[in-house]
Design a protein that fits this description.
- The protein is an alpha+beta fold and 485 residues long.
- The longest helix has 34 residues.
- It contains 17 helices and seven strands.
């Protein structure tokens, strides 16, 4: 699954949350005093440069020559601004960390350092980096207002930074701690801090999409809790309390799908055009997970476009579907030729259908050829593993394994994360012959799936050229020429 990235309202290169301190090298109360004439001249020369690059070089030189200067904090703040103007991300972050060594409560420096650590945490999942990001975010939410800053100015700064700090905590919870419940809470807290019109763009819109994905992860945990509650209810037959708890747990797990669909719809409503086509399949997939079909989806889109959060009555107006096994049985009953089902639907039948229905479909599939469009999870010369269903893409796990008929040339081995398509859609196309399948039960971290293995795989990047008669030979008498199809 591609990771959606929306432009942040407070992009690192243009961030300027705290105005640089007004400095006077005069002997006045509350101002910086520089008594050494040489230091004073160096300070004046550095701070009056108009070109950001020249100013940064002069400020760096000043800090090297006068590392204990009383103007150090102010010079670092101006250096931070110069690197921001230059668009030098790494030096901006490095300078922010230097500021925190001098002033641990600098909200601007905390923000910039947290911005960098959040991005690294999301990219690498490194535990130490994620811990640092979380600590910075917690620090930013609890830092006290510095003396001398007016209340309205401080409120302006916290209004700009607090939502972001909750976004950081959500990423840390989801990526490092595998705690989707906390991620849902943090994203919800963040979005409530924005004026509603501001949630249709920038970081707020991106995190609306992330909230939808957090609900998808939370559903796996809640579904496991529902299974556990159902087992307890069966073991205590006749116990009304246990039965009620099982129903509540099942409703909670189903509700996660509906909430995910809501926030996918909200993000879809305001996403740039090139993102809509990527969001819509997830929106439809999880709406159908909850409701069974797309009836009512247009109404949900309309509601989500008008309101950031779903109404309390949403679950009573959009009813949950039948059980997965019931849905699969109905799907097969209403499909005259199961071979015409989409590949992802076939996998769903094999993964969550009853044994009778799954075996019925497999009897039709085994030994037949099929293309395998999806996201490459792992690949080598002899085998390609692909995520086909949305659940598999979200979990970054393969539900189809294709063993190649002949080794793939090294330069043609598909890259991890790349998309396999049909040739008519631009390819490359991966084809194979159904060989075996195994049902994989649901867990707290993955939905129920089927491990489907195909043999005799081939990878095509373009259609085979039409065969032409050998040179010097003519078609037999009476033969007609046909244009290649």
């Amino acid at each position: 699954m591609k990771k959606f990235v929306f432009a942040s309202v407070m992009a690192l290169a243009s961030l300027s949350l705290v105005p640089a301190t007004t400095l006077r090298a005069q002997d006045q109360p509350g101002t910086i005093q520089i008594k050494d004439p040489a230091e004073f001249n160096a300070y004046q020369m550095a701070t009056t440069q108009s070109d950001p690059k020249a100013k940064a070089a002069a400020l760096e030189d000043f800090l090297t020559k006068y590392p204990q200067s009383s103007a150090k904090a102010a010079v670092l703040d101006m250096l931070l601004g110069a690197y921001q103007q230059m668009g030098d991300t790494q030096k901006t972050v490095d300078t922010a960390k230097k500021i925190l060594q001098v002033d641990p409560n600098s909200l601007k420096a905390i923000y910039i350092a947290a911005f960098n650590e959040k991005n690294q945490c999301a990219k690498t999942s490194d535990q130490a980096t994620c811990d640092d990001a979380g600590a910075l975010a917690q620090k930013g939410l609890t830092v006290t207002k510095p003396a001398g800053i007016p209340d309205d100015q401080w409120k302006q700064q916290t209004d700009a930074t607090y939502p972001f700090f909750h976004s950081v905590l959500a990423v840390v919870a989801l990526v490092s701690k595998k705690d989707p419940k906390t991620a849902v809470d943090e994203y919800t807290t963040e979005l409530k801090m924005y004026a509603v019109p501001d949630t249709t763009k920038g970081q707020a819109l991106g995190d609306t999409l992330q909230l939808a994905l957090a609900y998808v992860k939370l559903q796996l945990l809640d579904a496991q809790a529902a299974r556990d509650a159902a087992d307890k209810a069966k073991a205590a037959a006749g116990d009304a309390t246990a039965a009620q708890a099982a129903k509540a747990a099942n409703d909670k797990a189903n509700g996660d799908y509906l909430n995910a669909a809501w926030f996918f719809a909200r993000a879809w409503s305001y996403a740039p055009a090139n993102y809509k086509s990527q969001i819509e399949p997830q929106l439809e997939y999880y709406f159908k997970k909850y409701h069974g079909d797309t009836t009512g989806l247009d109404g949900l889109k309309t509601q989500a476009a008008a309101s950031l959060f779903p109404p309390p009555t949403l679950a009573s107006t959009i009813t949950p579907a039948k059980t997965p096994q019931e849905q699969i049985h109905d799907l097969l009953a209403n499909t005259p030729d199961p071979n015409t089902l989409a590949l992802a639907d076939k996998e769903t039948v094999l993964s969550v259908g009853s044994k009778e229905d799954a075996d019925k479909l497999w009897a039709l599939l085994q030994g037949k050829d099929t293309p395998v469009p999806g996201t490459v999870i792992e690949a080598n010369a002899n085998q390609v593993k692909v995520a086909v269903t949305q659940d598999a893409k979200d979990a970054k796990t393969a539900d189809f394994i294709v063993n190649m008929k002949e080794p793939i040339a090294e330069k043609e081995i598909p890259a991890v994360g790349s998309e396999l398509k049909l040739l008519k859609d631009g390819g490359p196309e991966l084809d194979g012959t159904y060989d075996t399948y195994t049902q994989v039960p649901a867990s707290a971290t993955a939905a129920a799936s089927a491990q489907i293995v195909l043999k005799d795989g081939i990878l095509q990047s373009k259609k085979a050229p039409a065969r032409k008669p050998a040179a010097g030979r003519r078609p037999a008498a009476g033969a007609t020429h046909k244009r290649p199809q």
